[in-house]
Amino acid sequence: MVVTELLERNAKLYADEVALVELNPDESDTRRISWKEFELVESTRFQPYRHEITWSVFNEKANRFANMLLGRGIKKGDKVAILMYNCLEWLPIYFGVLKTGAIAVPFNFRYDADEILYCAELAEVDMIVFGPSFIGRIETHAERLSKGRLLIYVGDTCPSFAESYHELVADCSSKNPEIPLTEDDFGAIYFSSGTTGFPKAILHKHRSLIQAAEMEQKHHGTGRDDTFLCIPPLYHTGAKFHWMGSLVAGSKAVLLKGTKPETILNAVSSERCTIVWLLVPWAQDILDALDRGDLKLENYHLSQWRLMHIGAQPVPPSMIKRWKEYFPNHEYDTNYGLSESTGPGCVHLGVENIHKVGAIGIPGYRWETKIVDEQGAEVAQGEVGELCVKGPGVMTCYYRNEEATAETIKDGWLFTGDMAMQDEDGFIFLVDRKKDVIVSGGENIYPVQIEDFLRKFDKIKDVAVIGLPDRRLGEKTAAIIEIKQGMECTREEVEDFCLTLPRYKRPKEIIFSEIPRNATGKIEKPKLRKMYGADQLVAQENRA
Length: 544
What we know:
Elements: H1 3-13, E1 18-23, H2 35-40, E2 50-54, H3 55-71, E3 79-83, H4 90-99, E4 103-106, H5 113-122, E5 127-130, H6 135-140, H7 142-145, E6 150-153, E7 163-164, H8 165-169, E8 186-193, E9 199-205, H9 206-220, E10 227-230, H10 237-249, E11 252-256, H11 261-271, E12 275-278, H12 280-292, E13 307-311, H13 317-326, E14 331-338, E15 343-348, E16 362-363, E17 368-372, E18 385-390, E19 397-398, H14 402-408, E20 409-410, E21 413-422, E22 428-433, E23 438-440, E24 443-445, H15 447-454, E25 460-470, E26 474-483, H16 491-497, E27 509-512, H17 525-531, H18 534-543
Parallel strand pairs: 1-11, 3-4, 3-5, 5-6, 6-7, 10-11, 10-12, 12-13, 13-14, 26-27
Antiparallel strand pairs: 1-2, 8-9, 9-19, 14-15, 15-16, 17-18, 18-21, 20-21, 21-22, 23-24, 25-26
Helix pairs in contact: 1-3, 3-4, 9-10, 12-13
């Protein structure tokens, strides 16, 4: 089975039931509305911020897009990039690509113009489908991007260098194009990066996609009466494959634009959401707002909310303890994964194992795990080594990168680059990341990119970027800067220099100090983490 068959099934069995809801609240005028008040207010007052589609409309949209692609020469094995914010068109476009036998290639919406070009050429995409917020970034390299590929614009007032999605699909058939697909066909390319910060294209077969969908439904028991609240971006494997539990169950999901605590609770209340996937910063913000009294639980309809799960970064045990004080009846789960394993779930805690908060858990549905030393031999229980996973969701390869593939996949095992240990009960705990990646608010930040940028500043002799623990974001970036002899530099000068960086890449802490390097010239980042208390703070948080 492939995931497109699930969509066809739902369109037949649950044709007129709601599949997707898009909530786009006006965050400049967000009001706290109790569930009692909500039921008394005319729903038309909220219509500008809420749109929905049924399973039959979802499927028809996917079919129209698929038939448009086929009419424009897109065929099995071709690649179609998607560069859009979450909206009701995102998933139908994704499934439309899959229905043609083409490969869906979601782009991170944080990519700048150069990163978009790089990824388009690395993955050899044949089409880019993009939304209004990305006109400027696409236009920067429009001439080069349009050579040999189609540019399709989803929105009003189509730019001159692209074609209009709405005009192209308007007259296309809503019937399934009936392209034969198997689990061995290629389905998607996702992007990841190692310590160098340069994206690698991760190729997955349809087998990975259906595995992720069935695993999510099994792990969280998603049923027909559940409503899943999806806040993270759909380009992210975590968001999309957590949603696929709803696809398997044939149940409703809500795409929420906005991460303010009151926005999230309003959505859970008004849409009667039962399953919510949060990132650590959002959960932390909700708890802080409750502590301050800015939010009052009695103002919301939350009794149906049964499961809160978290992934994408280490979860502070103390935060979950606080969460259970406010929400004692919630089930809780955490999920571990990476794009190379089709997102979260190859290791998961399990709702029945909340007594093991702090662990990432045990092998997920149909997955195996092992922890190995530098020679690839399994370590003894309680010893630290590299976490490896094996299962039907392992990537096929890094597209056009045989060397990196050979380093990462050995005898079917995916070497994650994460250091871990297993306790006496078989639960896995992450110890450190082998790869030099900072995870801040669920986003990967690559220190080398920031270091290379800062070294262009003529007052800087040397720089090292590390992650420091942050209560809200999980980690925050800290730049340790060594100034050239005889020069003076202020924090404000460095901050001004960094204004051309995307906001999420700008260092949150700036420390002026010498940079320690070892005999081979490598920066001794473990020493820096120890110097600035990162290791001690992490240990304190894990003991909390």
